[in-house]
Specification:
The chain is built from seven helices and no strands. It has 230 residues and is mainly alpha-helical. Helix 1 crosses helix 2, helix 2 packs antiparallel against helix 6 and helix 5 crosses helix 6. The longest helix has 38 residues.
């Protein structure tokens, strides 16, 4: 129950940034294999987030374009896919408590050897920063408004809802994709033994992190370690 997938991913990315610095800042002492592993690991983690937000953005856009062309059935299909994109991210990164699990739920599974016993479930408990919870509420509201607009075939209302969804998803995609691309560049520099070029990419990478933290971490998160000449 104490597992926090999102927080764990953040901590491991902090570790990745530290090992990137530790194995590139002084090239004469660097371990290029560790540098490459760390950068590849960071790129993979960021890529998972980018994939979720990119899919949400694209399905939301496809949904609006269908409605714009008078294809409300296609709009409904695209909107449902956008809902699923949200759920996919939730299931990967939400803690169990946010999904209604309590410790007795899994104890019941274990003790009875089945998931069909009368084990208890709890209410959803969210522990993220207030700004993150607010953004999720706003997203849920926009999704609900999009559903209602589809039911009413109201293009203006649907445009308003999908524009808000697009703005959020596209911003998040660009952050995570930016981290991914800079990490991939660092991994390639490790392969090519061009460690003197790592710093510029590292500074760009961590700017994405800090800009996002400024909006959403409320001081809880560990900022990436500074490059000394930053």
């Amino acid at each position: 129950m104490r597992d926090r997938p999102f927080a764990h991913a953040m901590r491991m990315m902090w570790i990745d940034t530290g090992t990137i610095i530790g194995n590139s800042y002084y090239p004469e002492y660097a371990d290029r294999d560790i540098l490459r592993y760390s950068a590849d690991s960071l790129a993979q983690k960021a890529g998972r987030f980018a994939d979720h937000f990119g899919a949400l953005r694209d399905h939301n856009r496809d949904s609006f374009m269908a409605a714009k062309n008078g294809n409300w059935e296609g709009a409904a299909t695209g909107n449902e896919l956008a809902h699923q994109d949200c759920g996919n991210c939730h299931y990967e990164f939400w803690p169990l408590s946010a999904r209604g699990f309590v410790k007795e739920t899994m104890e019941g599974w274990s003790q009875n050897g089945t998931v069909f016993s009368d084990e208890p479930w709890g209410e959803q408990v969210f522990t993220s920063p207030a700004s993150v919870r607010l953004s999720m509420v706003n997203m849920r509201t926009a999704m609900g408004q999009a559903n209602m607009a589809i039911m009413n075939e109201d293009l203006d209302a649907f445009r308003s809802a999908t524009e808000r969804l697009h703005k959020f998803a596209d911003k998040q995609f660009k952050i995570w994709d930016g981290i991914k691309r800079q990490a991939e560049a660092i991994a390639n520099l490790a392969r090519d033994n061009k460690l003197d070029e790592v710093g510029g990419h590292y500074i760009k990478l961590t700017k994405y992190c800090r800009d996002c933290h400024a909006d959403s971490s409320d001081g809880r998160g560990l900022d990436p370690l500074l490059w000394e000449q930053q």
